[in-house]
Specification:
The chain is α/β, with parallel strands linked by helices. Helix content is 26%, strand content 23%. The structure holds pyridoxal-5'-phosphate.
Length: 366
């Protein structure tokens, strides 16, 4: 898509830089140990950026294995790419035939899913072993059951045995080494197969965590893989909204619902058409910021469903007029930083990006 595909009446524009996503994949792939393949996590519509656009670009960059969360996501992605697609939630009862029809690789998360995958014909699957998350994956005791009764895996081709890190982004967290030890222990008991443990953060824990396949998501989309460390990833999104109106309010007047902000001087207020219905979280009330011409402006008052307000008193009127754009997220204010202001993380800021934004995809690979 080119910029001239943006409808003239779009008040808020989300720009996705597909070159940045591809560059991030190459960086992560380069960080992975030489024998480890680099998959691409494109669940939740590629963390809100658009799996249909991101998928083919990463396939072209060299990704051969993709992960989604749900069967429906897998079916949709299958229309966009030919590469292997793995489905994290695995088959629910009676959905096994859908996996086969769309050539999706299930992640088998329980002995029950394993038994159903076998009885529906078996074949290629990923076996998930729980090492600390306690959500999905077979327990250590169940891994021992499988080791003792290998017939339960008969007819199943183990593509990988995988597990998932609890706190990979906190490098000194002792849980990392514990999980690594539990994972190695399970691998030692189970039939020999390729293995996969690392998410984005796990790649930065070093080659001991890489095994045969790494599974980055967040870092592909520019989120910082390591807490409290410089972020080597390129920001992949830019969110801008047009100023609808600018008004001057008197000292003492309030702004927005429930008067959560009050002017203490004559104040110019710029209003833009983005709100919590767009995933611009209500917790950004009196905390968010915007940027005009690289200058930071504070969000004042409550975030409404469709509107937010900024104090632009300190900027020249010539740059803060109706029609000018305020940057709400992007290189000046990355999703991680906006998430921190909102009391959450960058993941939630990205996956909540609304479908109401006009979307522009940039990149030679697009
Ligand atoms: C989401 C997810 C990932 C990717 O995690 P990031 O922190 O986004 O890199 C990897 N593996 C599993 C099982 C996941 O659910």
């Amino acid at each position: 898509m080119r910029s001239d595909d943006i409808p003239a009446n779009a008040g808020a524009i989300l720009t996705v830089d597909l070159d940045a996503v591809a560059a991030n994949w190459r960086l992560l792939s380069g960080r992975a140990a030489p024998h480890a393949d680099c998959a691409a996590m494109v669940k939740a519509d590629a963390y809100g950026l658009g799996a249909e656009q991101v998928g083919p670009v990463l396939a072209k960059a060299g990704a051969r294995v993709f992960f989604v969360a749900t069967l429906d996501e897998g079916i949709r992605l299958r229309r966009a790419i030919k590469q292997e697609i793995c489905v994290l939630e695995g088959p629910r009862p009676a959905s096994e035939s859908e996996f086969r029809a769309h050539r999706l690789t299930p992640v088998v998360n329980s002995l029950d899913q394993l038994a159903r995958w076998r009885s529906s014909g078996g074949g290629r699957a990923i076996l998930h072993v729980d090492t600390g998350m306690s959500r999905l994956g077979i327990s250590e005791a169940e891994a021992e059951t499988l080791a003792a009764e290998p017939g339960r895996l008969g007819g199943v081709e183990l593509a990988w045995i995988m597990s998932h890190l609890v706190s990979g982004e906190i490098q000194h967290d002792p849980e990392n080494a514990l999980q690594l030890a539990r994972f190695r222990d399970a691998l030692g008991k189970l039939p020999k197969a390729k293995a996969s443990l690392a998410n984005s953060a796990g790649i930065f824990l070093g080659p001991a965590y890489h095994f045969d396949l790494v599974r980055p998501g967040a870092a592909l989309y520019g989120l910082a893989p390591v807490e409290h460390a410089p972020n080597p990833m390129r920001t992949a999104v830019r969110l801008e909204a047009e100023i609808l109106t600018v008004r001057t309010i008197a000292d003492g007047r309030s702004v927005g619902y429930n008067a959560q902000w009050r002017a203490n001087r004559p104040t110019r207020i710029a209003t833009v058409g983005v709100g919590y219905a767009d995933g611009y979280l209500r917790s950004l009330t009196n905390r968010g910021r915007g940027y005009i011409a690289s200058r930071s402006i504070p969000l004042v008052g409550r975030v409404s469903m469709d509107l937010v307000t900024f104090d632009v008193t300190d900027l020249p009127e010539s740059v803060c007029r109706p029609g000018a754009m305020i940057a709400l997220m992007g290189p000046e204010l990355p999703p991680d930083a906006l998430g921190a202001l909102a009391g959450t993380n960058g993941y939630q800021m990205l996956t909540g990006l609304s479908r109401r934004y006009a979307r522009r995809y940039l990149g030679s690979a697009a």
